Amino acid sequence: MTGDGAGAVTPPRLSLRGVTRRFDSVAALDGVTLDVAPGEFLALLGGSGSGKSTLLRVVAGFERPDSGTVMLDGADLLGVPPHRRPVNMMFQSYALFPHMTVAANIAYGLKREGRPRAEIASRVAEAVSMLRLEGLESRRPHALSGGQRQRVALARALVKRPRLLLLDEPLGALDANLRERTGFELRAIQRESGAAFVMVTHDQAEALALADRVAVMDRGRLVQVAPPREVYDRPATRFVAEFLGAANVITGTRTADGALESPGAACTLRPAAPLPLGVEAVALRPERVRIGPAIGENTAAGRVEDAAFRGESTLLLVRLAGGATLRVLHAEEDGAPPPPGAELRVSWDAASVVPLRA
Amino acid sequence: MRIALRLLPGLWLALLVAAPLALVAVMALSWQAEGVPPYSPPWGGEGINPENLRLILEDPHYRDSLAQSLVTATLTAGLCLLLAAPMGIAIARAGRWRDALLAAVLLPFWTGFLIRLGAWIGLLRDEGWINGLLRALGLVEAPVPLLYTEGAMLLGMVHAYLPFAVLPVFAAATRLDPALEQAAADLGATPGRAFLGITLPQLFPAMAAAFLLVLIPAAGEYVIPELLGPPEATLVGRVVFQEFFGNRDWPVASALALALLALLILPILLFQRLGREG
């Protein structure tokens, strides 16, 4: 279903151009331009107030942008009221109809399409079996567990066979155990249905685990749109690096030859390629930092302040000579980690120094 | 302290509900007598008097008054609900106007009940403002009889009881999850369909409560039929008043009051049952 045949020009399933939405004077969406391919699973990742939910509501039709265009398979969506858009949404609260049974909830959208009874019955049965809801058809939503409600909400949206499914924090209301399993199910269902999924989440692990591409949002703008591995390995901006959490963000001043001189780290970080002009911060992942005698010119001295055992590894907080803290991941297979208080030397490859735009 | 708090509702019910009710029940089984109070209780030597209750069931005068009261109260409650449902929903969705509109619904309570009825009399009587206006416009020559009609009585009842119907609908409408109507739209329902099929059913329990909150006091209403209604509107409240103060027949008045209570228990049970199922 991913229409990426050689040379064929497939219009994007969803195409946003310069979408802007202001509330009073604050821009919830500020010139968002984004394409989603057919069959793609895209995650909109951002904190609260980043505009990710507003963007989803613009596509669903519950919010009108002040400017910009929204197209589905090349056709304008903005002139179409929500109830006529071939797009379905799974609400964060699930928004199941409390006075209807599970089966009636799932059938609701097909009834509005005026489908024949027999077709409705068979498609509802199909959705029920796809989401393993057998035996719950005549229950009311209040008699379901959180995970079951989540699956009913998903079934209710998917039964319409939307070309694009919008999901607002689909795993947000589930407990940790259920999240992982449901996440795998969500991916399997996405592949099976062939629909493009656009999911809003504030949880970076969820976005990285589920999506084909992650679009990171900050204050109404897209700051980076890339596959999960790239967002993780090469965050484009300081915001992305900090939002994803794990990386060390080291600030300093750019030297004339394109390295970063960091007073906090008391060293000069030299990337593989010279830093672009204006870059004053770099990201360095904790697992890319080696402990031991200096190798190459990317090296600094420090002292272990604290250590947190994580099972397969230990996270060390290393206070560098310049006062900055560096998070270093020490793999268990490398033996016992240095104890708190130990003086040590850390070093890293030039390729691990990732320039961050402001 | 905790025990006292637990006993308090029981004490309250015993003093203000059970005791007066028992007193009324005893009176209904008593004999009319000269003196103060004008009845002799079943333990007064004559035993239980079943005649009062039988009279109420058999005499068309009393039966009709009960029926007439129920019809009037049902009409009042129905009209109130018809007005209150859209009002309550609209106020709940009025955004920053919400508090002001809610205050406007409650505003009549700040005026005395009798003053409000007096205002209606002033508007509706033959020399009143409405007839004055109609005559000034040349629409009528003789005054249209407005006051002392069924219409005036219903108008007064609806006006007096409307806030009781608006409040429960309003309260339920503010608790509705706005995502439900959006989900319906998302699944292809037009705004009208989403409202009728999704929003309205969630308000049914509140609407039933609103209906009952009006029906019950309206069934026993005495003042409004007396001041605005036609002489032939012998609602049960008026008949009770007449028996009690006119004929000094406290036992029959009590029996009538009991009969009304019995009649009102039926719809309450019915609505409670519907509420549980819904």
TrEMBL record, chain B:
Q: Where is the ABC transmembrane type-1 domain?
A: 66-271
Q: Which SUPFAM superfamilies match?
A: MetI-like
**Localization (cell):** Cell membrane
InterPro entries assigned to the protein according to its UniProt record, in alphabetical order:
MetI-like, MetI-like_sf
Indicate how the chain sits in the lipid bilayer: Multi-pass membrane protein
PROSITE patterns per record: ABC_TM1
GO annotation terms (biological process):
transmembrane transport
List the transmembrane segments: 66-89, 101-123, 152-173, 194-219, 250-271
Q: Give the protein family.
A: Belongs to the binding-protein-dependent transport system permease family. CysTW subfamily.
Q: What's the name of the protein?
A: Putrescine transport system permease protein
What species is this protein from? Muricoccus pecuniae
